[in-house]
User: Which sequence fits this backbone?
């Protein structure tokens, strides 16, 4: 009898050890125990030097009015435009990862640009033109190096945007007010993130958010 009990206990212990060893086998799902990845992710991104459709336009050269008619002076020949300045790009994004190498999501972005017009004679500012861009861009991301701390990835996104352009003179009057829809695009050639749940990242990109970007994010 005692021998039967001992044999039964030994068999139970063997089954328990076998089950535990199976539980310790590597898991490829998005469990929090794995320390590899989670399904949901939020990011705050800041981009530098955004590129828009107007940046790729090449206008045909046309001689100025003063070249064709040297004795005539037009108001446009008495002014010049200052440097084009930008606030950079800012975006809040959400991504969902059904598998560890692929994610899909959406980012909401904002970019502003402005430029002043000056008198040639005194260099005084006579007006200021500003543009504001709001964007919603669906994005897909592919991760080709996935480690507990470091990840390398690329992404691409195309969406819809709204642009408003306005020119206001020094007296406060609006001389020009124009708005249009456009198609923003963003291609991340190379991105790297460092961290587990709370992480930082940097990206080399081409598109509406900038040629390079960085920010912070959180996974859960």
Assistant:
């Amino acid at each position: 009898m005692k021998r039967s009990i001992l044999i039964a206990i030994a068999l139970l212990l063997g089954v328990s050890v076998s089950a535990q060893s199976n539980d310790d086998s590597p898991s490829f799902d998005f469990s929090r125990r794995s320390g590899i990845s989670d399904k949901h992710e939020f990011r705050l991104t800041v981009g530098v030097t955004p590129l828009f459709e107007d940046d790729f336009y090449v206008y045909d050269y046309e001689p100025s009015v003063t070249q064709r008619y040297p004795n005539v002076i037009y108001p446009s020949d008495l002014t010049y435009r200052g440097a084009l300045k930008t606030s950079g790009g800012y975006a809040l994004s959400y991504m969902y990862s059904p598998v560890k190498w692929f994610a899909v999501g959406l980012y909401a972005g904002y970019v502003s640009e402005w430029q002043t017009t000056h008198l040639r004679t005194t260099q005084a500012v006579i007006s200021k033109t500003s543009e504001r861009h709001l964007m919603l861009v669906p994005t897909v991301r592919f991760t080709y190096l996935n480690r507990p701390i470091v990840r390398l990835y690329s992404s691409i996104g195309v969406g819809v945007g709204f642009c408003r352009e306005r020119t206001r003179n020094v007296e406060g009057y609006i001389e020009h007010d124009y708005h249009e829809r456009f198609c923003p695009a963003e291609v991340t050639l190379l991105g790297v993130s460092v961290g587990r749940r709370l992480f930082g990242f940097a990206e080399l990109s081409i598109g509406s958010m900038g040629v390079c970007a960085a920010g912070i994010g959180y996974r859960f």
